[in-house]
Design brief:
By secondary structure, the protein is an alpha+beta fold. It has helices at residues 6-19, 26-31, 53-66, 91-94, and strands at residues 95-98, 106-109, 120-125, 129-134, 139-144, 162-163, 190-192, 198-201, 210-213. Helix content is 18%, strand content 18%.
């Protein structure tokens, strides 16, 4: 739990500086008390150039006892990790806040129809429709009822706010399989055009960016 904490994540770049970066050697290493025996550093000695077998054996013994520092990969300070992007909250698409006279604010469910047969990775809201992206790499869309706002107070809604069935397996699959481990924040892998008719997606094994139309 400590290694996965926000404190460790926020200071990880400082560890990179000590082990692989600009604080591994030189003045910055001295300031950071990060100095080790000279034979431990990469390139400190050329064993193949030693003609005396006893000198080579002694040097190899010292290296074995003290260990080796990693190769220095960076000469400038490593930047801290950027703050994580807030995931898309799909709850705002299904609920609305209604203020009732002299009553506390409450949330009211407006729609329960499945948007997809597979778990949704991302949901986008446009003025005309809802676009969903499923784990099966199929898109799903539904339109708002004409003249009905999804943010109407519940007492004024007389019918379902959406039209059309979205859970349709006949929709074509887009792209190739996603890279494993890239979907912790899936909403950042997809973008929908302003009119909700084009889906842009990334995170595929072939490193492509796809544009799917006909939503």
């Amino acid at each position: 739990m400590a290694l996965e904490s926000e404190h460790v994540s926020a200071h990880l770049h400082e560890w990179v500086d000590l082990v692989f970066g600009y604080k591994q050697r030189g003045v910055e290493a001295e300031k950071s008390l990060n100095v080790f025996y000279y034979l431990t550093y990469e390139g400190a000695v050329d064993l193949d150039a030693m003609d005396d077998p006893r000198e080579r054996a002694a040097t190899e013994a010292q290296i074995s006892n003290f260990g080796n520092t990693p190769a220095q990969l960076l000469t400038k300070a490593h930047p801290p990790r950027a703050p994580p992007r807030a995931p898309l909250d799909p709850a705002t698409l299904a609920t609305t806040l209604a203020t009732v006279t002299s009553a506390p604010t409450c949330a009211v469910m407006l729609h329960e129809r499945p948007l997809s047969r597979a778990p949704l990775l991302a949901v986008a809201l446009t003025p005309e429709r809802i676009v969903g992206v499923g784990a099966d790499r199929r898109t799903s869309t539904v339109k708002w009822q004409p003249g009905v706002s999804p943010l109407e107070p519940p007492g004024r809604i007389a019918a379902d706010v959406l039209i059309g069935s979205a859970a349709n397996e006949r929709r074509p699959i887009f792209g190739v399989p996603f890279v494993e481990g890239l979907l912790e924040h899936p909403a950042t892998r997809f973008a929908v055009s302003a009119d909700g008719r084009h889906l842009f997606s990334c995170g595929y094994w072939d490193r492509s960016v796809r544009c799917s139309n006909g939503l």
